[in-house]
Design a protein that fits this description.
This protein has 458 residues and is mainly β. The protein contains four helices and 31 strands. It has helices at residues 2-25, 95-98, 323-328, 422-431, and strands at residues 30-32, 37-42, 56-58, 64-68, 78-83, 88-94, 117-119, 122-126, 147-152, 158-163, 169-176, 181-187, 191-196, 201-207, 213-215, 218-220, 228-229, 236-239, 244-249, 254-262, 282-288, 293-298, 303-308, 313-319, 338-340, 346-353, 366-374, 379-388, 396-402, 407-415, 444-452. The longest helix has 24 residues, at 2-25. The relative contact order is 0.13.
């Protein structure tokens, strides 16, 4: 009987195993969903606003804080607060005015070009320029320089922590909460600088991106838009224009170039047509505290990668470009709307297919689409284009926040369809004064957009 039972079990086990293998082999590791992602627009009434970069957070007080930037010649970036429980939107501050600057006299603080970080009951960030001219223009004095800033969530007080470097904006900024430091790279000169919060001191290291320069109003190279901070040792990482990686060594208080690690991987060197350079850059990089490594997205090709600098391990995982680009093998420049879930399991990414400068042949922008990537299961999902309740499709996005309430918060460019409305007239007056209405097909507004999180379990 034992022998008979043993032989009877073999086909059963084989059947069960074959079923499991078949199930595994048919698992949808890339899924392209049909339909659209419903979104809700939240109006803030800032017609000068024309962009957002990173700057959005769902804070511990339950409110969503976000900055809307502007390239308007006399306006500063504004900080807004949205209360998801009441639907109310407030203007927290005209940042430049709060810092004591007059945007009609000097080049204004046009942007916040970094994340908003929460620590010790405050939001921490830096300011950046909207338009620029070294030494000032005929109608504006010189740009004062980007400020390190804090905002107290309980009192509403904005504190000026000082200017990083005169006439330099803080184009990328990150925070080491454990060691109470703000780190930044400036634009246009790529100066690495930090602000130490406990001692209220700053330190500048001068130009710190190999291959970048700004001289006689001519910029060559580029400045990274995202800094990686390793929470284990406090080291800070950014890329150079030759695909090498620089490290701020916290223990030595010095900058060094990694000699045995770089981004010089053949698959990452594919660029859009007409671009002769072959350097590899990341667009965004995030620390995964669960896996104790970085996850990033390359600027060209939108490759998702993981990297542990202590182990010198680098893995190209997948392409997270939107489905219409990923399927055809086209190239698009990556978006800053790239976030990692707190549990370290899911990448959230939003991008569109803009015409012109990105190198594609489209004349009209494709809507932005919501992408998620399940890291443990290596599953890519394109959830579809985001469509608002009024039928419009946002077509550009550089900022996303994973809410702790089951929603995602994005700041998007949204096409203006009615230029005869009061809002349309005001946007045209402030941002397109010289353009005839019939040529305003690409005109847009910038506002907060709320969508349901398709991953978070209710």
């Amino acid at each position: 009987m034992r022998i008979l039972f043993r032989y009877m079990c073999v086909p059963i086990v084989m059947f069960l195993c074959s079923g499991a293998i078949a199930q595994m082999s048919s698992a949808p590791f890339a899924e392209y969903k049909k339909g659209h992602v419903p979104g809700k627009i939240i109006e803030c009434n800032f017609p000068q606003g024309d962009s957002n970069y990173h700057a959005i957070i769902h804070a511990s007080d339950g409110n969503v804080y976000y900055a809307i930037c502007t390239h308007h010649r006399s306006s500063h970036v504004n900080l807004f607060r949205y209360n998801p429980r009441t639907g109310k939107v407030d203007t927290v501050a005209d940042i430049g005015k709060a810092l004591g600057e007059d945007g009609t006299k000097n080049i204004p603080q046009g942007r916040v070009h970094c994340d908003l970080f929460e620590d010790d009951g405050k939001l921490w960030f830096g300011t950046h320029v909207g338009f620029y001219e070294r030494g000032g223009t005929k109608d504006h004095g010189p740009y004062p320089g980007g400020h390190f800033v804090s905002y107290d969530l309980s009192t509403g007080k904005i504190e000026d922590l000082g200017i990083g470097e005169a006439e330099e904006g803080l184009v990328s900024l990150s925070m080491d909460k454990k060691r109470k430091r703000l780190y930044a790279l400036t634009w246009p000169s790529a100066i690495f600088i930090y602000y130490d919060i406990p001692s209220k001191t700053k330190k500048s290291f001068g130009t710190s991106v190999v291959g970048h320069s700004y001289k006689d109003k001519i910029e060559s190279g580029g400045v990274p838009r995202s800094l990686g901070i390793d929470s284990r040792d406090g080291n800070v990482y950014w890329f150079n224009m030759d695909s090498t990686i620089n490290r701020y060594n916290f223990s030595l208080d010095a900058i060094e170039t990694l000699m045995e690690q770089s981004l010089d991987h053949p698959i990452l060197k594919v660029h859009e047509p007409g671009i002769p350079e072959s350097q590899v850059e990341w667009r965004s990089i995030r620390w995964n505290k669960v896996e104790q490594c970085f996850y990033g997205n390359t600027f060209w090709g939108e490759h998702l990668f993981s990297w542990d600098p202590q182990k010198a391990s680098f893995e190209v995982i997948d392409r997270i470009a939107i489905g219409t680009v990923r399927k055809t093998g086209e190239l698009m420049r990556a978006s800053l709307a790239f976030e990692l879930s707190p549990d370290g399991h899911t990448i959230y990414y939003v991008n569109g297919a803009a015409p012109g400068f990105e190198g594609n042949k489209k004349t009209v922008a494709d809507p932005v689409r919501l992408i998620t990537y399940d890291i443990p299961n290596r599953k890519y999902t394109d959830h579809g284009p985001i469509q608002l309740q009024d039928g419009r499709f946002p077509d550009y996005c550089q900022g996303i926040e994973i809410g702790n309430d089951g929603y995602l918060y994005l700041v998007c460019n949204i096409p203006v369809k009615d230029w005869t409305s009061e809002k349309g007239k005001r946007i045209k007056e402030l941002r397109y004064p010289e353009t005839p209405v019939e040529k305003l097909e690409g005109g847009y507004e910038v506002n907060l957009v709320v969508v349901k999180d398709p991953v978070k379990k209710k």
